[in-house]
Amino acid sequence: MAKRVRFEAEPGTILTTFLGPEARLVSWTFPDSGHLEFDEDDQEPLEVLRGFAADPSHPTISETAATAPKESKTR
Amino acid sequence: MTTASRQNEGLLGIAQQTAEGTAKGTATYAHTLYGGLPRPVRADNEMEVASTGQHVPGIFATEQHWEMDATFPGLPISLGQWLLAAFGTLSTSGAGDPYTHTFTPAATPGFITAFGRTPGSLYRKFADGTVNELSFNFEAGQPLRVNAKAMGYTPTDLAVAWTATTTEAYDTDGEYLTMIGSTLKMDIGATPASTTVATIQSGTITVTRDLSLIQTDGFEPEHRSLGLFKVGVSVHALWVDATAFKATYYGSTSGTASSPVQPVSSLDLTFAVGPTTNANHSLQLQVPKVKLAVPEPPDVDPAAGPTFVDLAGMVFAETGDTIITAKLKSSVSTYT
């Protein structure tokens, strides 16, 4: 089973950007739990959310290793 | 064609597409403008061939796309949609009004559908557009003016009027973004900007993205090529002392000899809304690293007119920097 990666932020935080040559709109919303989890091989969200986490201009987003393979992402 | 119309009316609309080729049918926001509605642009060519009468035997069209060069007041609700289109990366936080929308440049900006209503009630829809310039012009006492340039693939005229989910008013009650009540921070030779100055009279911040539309086997372009995302700043300020001049030409604010060292300066401009103030709503533009080129100090003026200095700068971002950040605080919960 793939490891899980967890991102934490204020509940309700919405991240939006565009991907690929067709500029596909993608968006993630942090639910009331304040965290989103993805498989470590789910490259698209990991790449985008790590980009937000690395940019201090945006709200505080932190990455941690999830302890259980619990699905909690919304998209 | 009738030319009897005297209606000098117009409306500009915008909607964000979910991807290239997915034009929207309804504008998310519509608002008034000073001018510059989107319009079709067609390339017509003369048939330059030798003929017996030495005349051009015909005309042929090679390509059609659309362009926009619209100027409109900075309105705190609809402006977010333009910022998303121009910047491309957005994070939104907050549990209620005000929501804070933070825009930073993306490698790939999204596609927009622009909508225009021209004098004579001609309704037009312009699909697959890319905003390639967004300029913020501020001047003492004046509402913030925004100029948006865009180019796109497909212009169409509509048989029926387009509609907008929200039409934002610009009237005496506001709210509109304005220079009055703004907080302008600028530091010469230091970053980030933390010094509030009351000497700036006017200025411009412009973000541009190099853009080419590419035509292949159709009459309209079907692809785009993106280049550098660049930021330019200019500030018209009262001349107070020689600090900016020395820092620019002599490497430090106390320098006296030529220096190749260019100090890094910074801007952090927050525009308030008015005319009735609302501290919850504002637009903040942060430019952390700019190298200013300062012209000569002002000459004396025996008529005792004020002396000004024009600061123009080239903005850059080193590894880990964000070249520009725009933060819009508004009542809108999300922009998509």
Structural class of chain B: mainly beta
Shape, per Cα inertia axes of chain B: globular
Q: Sheet with the most strands of chain B?
A: 17 strands, mixed
Question: How much strand content do the residues of chain B show?
Answer: over 45%
Order of strands, main sheet of chain A, comes to 4-1-5
Order of helices and strands of chain A: EEEEHE
**Amount of helix of chain B:** under 10%
Give the C-alpha Rg of chain B.
23 Å
Series of H and E elements of chain B:
EEEEHEEEEEEEEEHEEEE
Q: Give the amount of beta strand of chain A, in percent.
A: 25-35%
General form of chain A: globular
**Helical residue percent of chain A?**
10-25%
Structural class by SSE content of chain A: alpha+beta
* Mean pLDDT level of chain B: 93
Oligomer: heterodimer
Mean pLDDT of chain A: 88
Poorly predicted regions of chain A? none
- List the total number of helices of chain B: 2
Which descriptors would you attach to this protein?
heterodimer; A: 75 residues; three-stranded antiparallel β-sheet; two-stranded antiparallel ribbon; 1 helix; B: 336 residues; mainly beta; globular
Task: Please characterize this protein's 3D structure.
The complex is a heterodimer of chains A (75) and B (336). Chain A has 75 residues and is α+β, with helices and mostly antiparallel strands. Chain A is 16% helix and 35% strand. In chain A, the strands form two sheets. In chain A, strands 4-1-5 form a three-stranded antiparallel sheet, covered by helices on one side. Chain A is built from one helix and five strands; from the N terminus they run ββββαβ. Chain A starts with a strand and ends in a 10-residue tail after the last strand. Chain A has one helix at residues 43-54; strands at residues 4-8, 14-19, 24-29, 35-39, 62-65. Chain B is mainly beta and 336 residues long. Chain B has helices at residues 79-87, 243-250, and strands spanning 11-16, 27-31, 39-46, 59-73, 88-93, 99-105, 112-118, 122-139, 145-157, 164-168, 176-187, 200-214, 223-238, 265-274, 282-293, 308-315, 325-330. Chain B has a 17-stranded mixed sheet that branches. In chain B, β8 (122-139) and β9 (145-157) form a beta hairpin. The longest helix of chain B has 9 residues, at 79-87. Chain A binds chain B through residues 9-25, 27, 51-52, 54-59, and chain B through 16-21, 84, 88-95, 100, 102, 104, 106, 108-111, 286, 320, 322, 325, 334-336. β2 of chain A pairs antiparallel with β5 (88-93) of chain B, so a sheet runs across the interface.
